[in-house]
Design goal:
Length: about 500
């Protein structure tokens, strides 16, 4: 007895890239991805629908993609299980400015198991009485579980077809069960047929925020064939928020509706198969449903270029990689009508939208600049002329930082006082938005018109005298001659108590 339970069967195959083709391992626009998928079909069968469960993880290391996935199929009261654990890898090579070729392979184990006593057999049938499970089945089972090795290979290509960048193509193919493993619970030779998969997807950018993505999937395994065709429609609501919905047809079987929500690299999707074949009577009109999530982490690394804003223009060619735009504007959006809006620095970004309203900048950085192209805007970059990671405030990791504020001494205007990147390493003690070194009243909130000092009556109050005292060496005791100064200072304070005193201390460390 050989149990040829169906291979991995998913209607929404795009999120499961490396499950469809190992060459797609690590092709996501992020450094890491975790995915989960679940499918339930034949729910009309009481308590025992056919389910598919899948987990996957993949990462990108420059031009290499590495991944692993586990899938588990379960069917019927006999607990017919098929578990597949695979490790995959892919090499991605850029063949031109906008073309990539990928080669991948996967290897692992495939395990199948059943509960023989859960079946009924011809030898157990007693005429007039029905099936007697206590009778011998007459079936020569030699095992109820077997494990075989499993291998697959794949090839894929991705390119931009139009000079404007509005049309892209992803296509590829794979061969699964390349070693044609033997599978049988009886012990006889029963080969698992090799499976051929071909897939293709076009991407048409109709305007700045809308994409149409027709796709085709072909699978052949032994005498069984599956062809699925359809289209997805993707809309960019915000740079970090995208919505995708689609409709596909599995020929001779089902009509499939899909919806997906993606927010900042986290995606949730759901699809439903409406049966269109004669099987509709067998499943009582209850089609299959499928759901899944994937989480993406980390910035795009060397290898296949990303399209962060989803405008169809790859980041290396996009002058505004975080804002959807037009090919004729190198990926930047259409200019706004700014005639009636104030623009202090004259950079084309109105003050209401400009994150750096006093310094000319670029629209893609909301009016700011990023001279070193490290992803940290200059107004937040402690080292605006030196490439460095965002987690180190845009500075290189190996630099001297005496005050441990994340800003190297070479770029720190206050190297021995812990400060903020936007103030070049200096503090803003009163929190009025003016660096202490530019603030004539560093401990009293004020505004720039008064050089950081408060206005009104409070600014006109008489200043108290400044008193400096010294401690004994390596002790917390004030030297005797300075105690007299403190007593005189105390006697000079207003009797009504309407005053403020700032006490500041320094050490010789």
């Amino acid at each position: 007895m050989a149990v040829g339970a169906q291979d991995l069967h998913l209607s929404n195959f795009q999120p499961a890239g490396m499950l469809t083709n190992p060459a797609l391992t690590g092709s996501m626009p992020a450094s890491y991805q975790l995915s989960f998928q679940y499918r339930s079909q034949w729910t009309a069968i009481p308590d025992q629908p056919y389910t598919t469960l899948g987990f996957g993880g993949e990462m990108k290391l420059k031009s290499l993609g590495l991944g692993a996935f586990l899938t588990k199929n379960h069917a019927g009261p006999a607990s017919l299980n098929a578990t597949n654990v695979m490790f995959s890898g892919a090499y991605h090579r850029q063949m031109g400015k906008r073309s990539f070729l990928s080669l991948g392979a996967a290897g692992g184990i495939l395990q199948k198991s059943i509960i023989p006593n859960a079946f009924t057999y011809e030898n157990q049938y007693v005429e007039g009485e029905g099936f007697d499970p206590l009778l011998d089945s007459g079936e020569p089972f030699i095992q109820n579980r077997y494990t075989v090795t499993d291998f697959s290979v794949g090839l894929s290509a991705k390119t931009v077809l139009s000079p404007s960048g509005n049309v892209g193509l992803l296509m590829g193919g794979s061969l699964a069960h390349l070693n044609v493993p033997n599978e049988s619970f009886y012990g006889e030779v029963a080969e698992l047929p090799m499976k051929t998969t071909l897939h293709a997807q076009l991407s048409f950018k109709t305007d700045e925020l809308f994409f149409v993505e027709p796709h085709l999937l072909f699978m052949q395994q032994g005498q069984h064939r599956e062809v699925l065709a359809g289209a997805n429609f993707r809309m960019v609501v915000e740079p970090d928020f995208k919505v995708r919905f689609g409709l596909s047809h599995r020929f001779g079987d089902a009509l499939i509706g899909q919806v997906e929500l993606e927010l900042a690299g986290k995606s949730f999707w759901f699809s439903y198969d409406g049966t269109t074949s004669s099987l509709r009577n067998a499943n009582a009109g209850k089609g299959a449903w499928e759901t899944g999530i994937y989480l993406r982490f980390g910035e795009e690394k060397n290898g296949e270029a990303a399209d962060t804003d989803g405008d169809g223009i790859l980041d290396p060619d996009d002058d505004c990689p975080k804002v959807p735009g037009l090919p004729e504007l190198n990926g930047c959006p259409k200019e706004y009508d700014l005639k009636n809006l104030p623009d202090t620095d004259g950079d084309g970004v109105p003050d209401t939208l400009d994150q750096c309203p006093l310094e000319p900048g670029l629209q893609c950085f909301y009016g700011c600049n990023d001279k070193d192209r490290d992803g940290t805007w200059d107004n937040l970059d402690a080292c605006p002329s030196i490439f460095g990671p965002p987690e180190n405030n845009g500075c290189p990791l190996k630099t001297k930082d005496s005050d441990l504020d994340g800003i190297p001494d070479s770029e720190d205007f206050c190297p021995f006082l812990k400060g903020l990147p936007e103030f070049h390493g200096c503090p803003d003690s009163d929190g009025d938005g003016i660096s202490d070194i530019d603030d004539e009243c560093p401990y009293m909130k004020g505004d720039r018109r008064h050089k950081g000092c408060p206005k009104g009556e409070e600014a006109q109050k008489e200043a108290l005298p400044e008193v400096t005292v010294y401690f004994d060496h390596d002790q917390a005791l004030i030297k005797p001659q300075y105690r007299v100064l403190l007593m005189e200072f105390a006697r000079s304070l207003p009797a009504d108590g309407n005053f403020r005193i700032l006490i500041a201390g320094h050490t010789d460390y």
